[in-house]
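Let us practice reading a record.
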Amino acid sequence: MMPWLIFLFVGVFDWGFYSHALISIESAARVAALYGSSASGGNVSASAICSRVLDELKISANTSGISTCMALPVIVTPSCTTTAGLNAVQVAVTYQTLQLIPIPDLLTGQATLHRVVQIPMRNNNTCTAVS
């Protein structure tokens, strides 16, 4: 019976870790897009958006000591777009989890998660190039 309990514990641990990572990157993308949508004069700063994402992900594993968002485990891609005729900010966040215990045919042990959020600019400001 013990091998089945260990197998069950490993599965629950992995799914819990992945769920936490999903919730964290969704929140990080939302916060960064909200920040970008309220940028004064429509000037959206990529470094400020990266900073917001890293602040949200600071409790996640695999992100301590990261200062840029250009390579895995955290990649942030902000851009300007239009949605339903409104100027908008789009933020894409990609996060790679730590290597966990793989379960053959169920869990690979590591996941790369990706979330994209679009939010219209406040007061329909023109979104200028993200730099």
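A brief commentary: The mean pLDDT is 89.
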